[in-house]
């Protein structure tokens, strides 16, 4: 059974992902760093690792509900 993708809540519309934010060895174990832009949906997903970045207080923020 696969785990659901990680969700990261952010205050910024522009975020980066390298797939290794929580890995001590860093990007060597992740993927190339990509910059992502959160649009009117209130979230964006990384094309490499499926990590979802959600804008705090935005339309996709389930924590605000």
UniProtKB/TrEMBL annotation:
<protein>
    <recommendedName>
        <fullName>Zinc finger CHCC-type domain-containing protein</fullName>
    </recommendedName>
</protein>
<feature type="domain" description="Zinc finger CHCC-type">
    <location>
        <begin position="13"/>
        <end position="53"/>
    </location>
</feature>
<dbReference type="InterPro" id="IPR019401">
    <property type="entry name" value="Znf_CHCC"/>
</dbReference>
<dbReference type="Pfam" id="PF10276">
    <property type="entry name" value="zf-CHCC"/>
</dbReference>
């Amino acid at each position: 059974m696969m785990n659901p993708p990680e969700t990261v809540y952010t205050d910024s519309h522009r975020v980066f992902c390298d797939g290794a934010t929580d890995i001590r060895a860093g990007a060597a174990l992740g993927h190339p760093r990509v910059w992502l832009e959160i649009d009117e949906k209130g979230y964006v997903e990384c094309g490499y690792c499926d990590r979802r970045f959600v804008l705090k207080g935005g339309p996709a923020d389930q924590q605000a509900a």
